UniProtKB/TrEMBL annotation:
This is HlyD family secretion protein. It is a single-pass membrane protein. InterPro entries: Beta-barrel_RND_2 (IPR058792), MdtA-like_BSH (IPR058625), MFP (IPR050739). Residues 254-296 form the CusB-like beta-barrel domain. Residues 56-249 form the Multidrug resistance protein MdtA-like barrel-sandwich hybrid domain.
Length: 348
């Protein structure tokens, strides 16, 4: 019995020794792989997913008539999110349209008066030309009878009749010329009335366009494709101009990795970047370096460290690196703020 126990113990010890050596071998392989990977890659877990978060605000005050979104809903650019009661703004548009129509009719009326005056000028001008012919004819008749009277071939009465017709023609011509001058002044006066009214029409058109623009503000739309956030508004709620109604998170996303300043020179920006999200450790996302921050992250803080005061302690700075993600079917799983680990290949 004792010998059987000893054989069993030997067999157990042998198995345990083999298992131990297997684990040692695995450990050596892991350490070797880690060393090779670490020597050829630059890693950081100080990285997060980023997306644009845009607050959508109201440009007008009023009561909410409709809310056309649900929390976390995906929306497209131009989709209506909120409808504000627009009756007041619609009335302003109608009043602006009525005012513009009335002023436009005044322009037509003044323009018609100008056309009439121009037509009268043409008529008077034609009458003047006809009167000039009559003056010329009666003048010829007057000279002929004057010569006949001197030769005693016509009576004084005949000469006086001809002379009266000549003077009458001259007076008629002068009256027409005076009438033409007066009509020309009146036409010019009517023409001067048109320009100010046309200016009023232009102003009222601009006012109408502005009221229509304000009316369009009663429809609050999504600025781009993305997801809406928390829903904090309800139908019937009074909102003010400039009040934030909802926040939209963009569909576009990227990663900001904060590498140490000693790592920046080792990153090969021409190679792919591997990204592992803490939320999805089994999925590998790919990306490429797009840009490097022009300053260390601490330089953008409200209160910058002043190394010229107190005892100086050197702190290794970090620089944000923007990484653009490659398209993949799993990309929609990432959300802004998620922590990720970034691995970049070193320059050969």
């Amino acid at each position: 019995m004792a010998s059987q126990m000893t054989t069993s113990e030997k067999r157990t010890n042998k198995i345990l020794g083999i298992i131990a050596w297997i684990f040692v071998g695995i450990g050596v392989l892991v350490l070797g792989w880690f060393y090779l990977f670490a020597s050829s890659h630059v890693n950081t877990n100080n990285a997060q997913v980023r997306q644009y978060i845009t607050p959508v605000s109201s440009k007008v005050s009023g009561f909410i008539q409709e809310v056309r979104f649900e929390e976390n809903q995906f929306v497209h650019k131009g989709d209506t999110l909120v409808v504000i009661d627009n009756r007041e703004f619609a009335n302003q548009v109608q009043m602006a349209e009525a005012t513009l129509e009335s002023t436009a009719e005044s322009v037509d009326s003044y323009q018609s008066a100008v056309s009439v005056k121009s037509s009268d000028l043409q008529t008077i001008q034609a009458n003047i030309e006809a009167s000039k012919i009559e003056v010329w004819r009666t003048e010829q008749e007057y000279q002929r009878f004057k010569n006949l009277v001197e030769e005693e071939a016509a009576t004084i009465q005949q000469f006086e009749n001809v002379e009266a017709k000549f003077k009458q023609a001259q007076a008629h011509l002068k009256a027409l010329q005076n009438q033409y001058t007066t009509a020309k002044i009146n036409a010019a006066a009517e023409q001067t009335k048109v320009a100010p009214v046309r200016s009023q029409v232009a102003q009222q058109k601009a006012h109408l366009n502005n009221t229509k623009l304000i009316l369009s503000y009663t429809y609050v739309v999504a600025p781009y494709e993305g997801w809406v956030g928390v829903k904090n508004i309800q139908v019937g709620q009074l909102i003010k101009e400039g009040q934030a109604l909802v926040q939209v998170v963009s569909k576009e996303k990227w990663v900001v990795a904060n590498f140490k300043e000693t790592q920046l020179g080792e990153i090969d920006t021409t190679k792919e970047i591997e990204i592992h999200a803490d939320a999805f450790p089994n999925i590998v996302f790919k990306g490429k370096v797009q840009s490097l921050s022009p300053a260390a992250g601490s330089e953008f803080s409200l209160i910058k460290p002043d190394n010229a005061t107190g005892n100086f302690v050197k702190i290794e700075q970090r620089f944000p690196v923007k990484i653009v993600l490659e398209e993949s079917t799993d990309l929609d799983k990432l959300r802004t703020g998620m922590s990720v680990t970034v691995s970049a290949q070193k320059i050969d």
